Amino acid sequence: MHMTTHSLSQYIDDGKVAVVTDSVAQVPATVAGELGISVVPFSVLVEDATFRDEVDITPTELYQRMRTEGILPRTSHPSLGEYLQVFRERLQAGAGSILYLPVSGKLSGAYDTALEAAPMIREEYPDREIGVFDTRTATIAQGFIAIEAAQASCRGAALGQVMDIAKDVRTRTGFVATLDTLEYLARGGRIGKLAYMLGNMIDVKPILNIGDDGLVAPIARVRGAGRSLEKMVAWVAERVAGKPGLRLAVMEGDAPDQAARLRDLALQELQPDEIFITSMTPVIGVHAGPGIIGLAYYHE
């Protein structure tokens, strides 16, 4: 699955709201193409080389290199120039306005950089509007917001209405994830050495999500991989019980067997209208390590 910003010829925007997001949102390329979502790639830095997420390197390639070569990649958000370029492209293709939906501003500088780009573009196109809305989430949970916003735009909704829909969808989407190992969080200095040693000694699996404040937070700790999958499904079940139109996404970072188990469990327990498996974005995987697995939801 390759995601990139699209060429002008792909868009004839006819005055509509152009929805833009970043590669952290994991919007499948086919869906982005159908709905006219522009995806701005984050970059993954491996030693001296820079790769554009999902353009020059896939999550699977990256996770396998982390396992086999022991590399410690870094990530960086799109530059001011990249935002200016994609915003200009969409306006030149006829968009009446733009709504950019970035990963949580607490996790990345993408939101702030886009806020800097917006008034610069407004000066060039004074008759157009640029909206930037902090999704305060990440992964396909962020992607669900972009998809619903783009569908509203396709129906002819104006910028204010599309922004309202994005705000509303944010209250109906979320995700939970568990790590294979605490090693990468420890190596990155994100947890203390003692907590890491204790965690790995007793096979403790931390379960994480992004809270309403847009920050990653642990919500539980369980022993053993099997129990961690059950705990994730139970956590989602609490949030989606009795809700219509349930869509689920299983996310994995080089953990296909676990992903298949989680998919089966989620199908059985939650009976969604739709479920699919997608790669966990490297922007999270780089810090969490290979073997990360997650479950995202969206309901109507």
Secondary structure elements and their pairing?
Layout: E1 17-22, H1 29-35, E2 38-40, E3 43-46, E4 49-52, H2 59-69, E5 74-76, H3 80-92, E6 97-101, H4 110-124, E7 129-132, H5 139-154, H6 159-170, E8 173-178, H7 183-187, H8 193-201, E9 204-210, E10 216-223, H9 225-240, E11 247-252, H10 256-270, E12 274-279, H11 282-288, E13 293-298
Parallel strand pairs: 1-2, 1-6, 6-7, 11-12
Antiparallel strand pairs: 3-4, 3-5, 8-9, 8-13, 9-10, 11-13
Helix pairs in contact: 3-4, 5-6, 9-10
Report on the structure:
- It is a single chain.
- The protein has helices at 29-35, 59-69, 80-92, 110-124, 139-154, 159-170, 183-187, 193-201, 225-240, 256-270, 282-288, and strands spanning 17-22, 38-40, 43-46, 49-52, 74-76, 97-101, 129-132, 173-178, 204-210, 216-223, 247-252, 274-279, 293-298.
- With 300 residues, the protein is α/β, with parallel strands linked by helices.
- The strands form 3 sheets. A 6-stranded mixed beta sheet has the order 10-9-8-13-11-12, sandwiched between helices. Strands 2-1-6-7 form a 4-stranded parallel beta sheet, sandwiched between helices.
- Strand 9 and strand 10 form a beta hairpin.
- The longest helix has 16 residues, at 139-154.
- The radius of gyration is 19 Å and the shape is globular.
- The model is unreliable at 1-10 (pLDDT under 50).
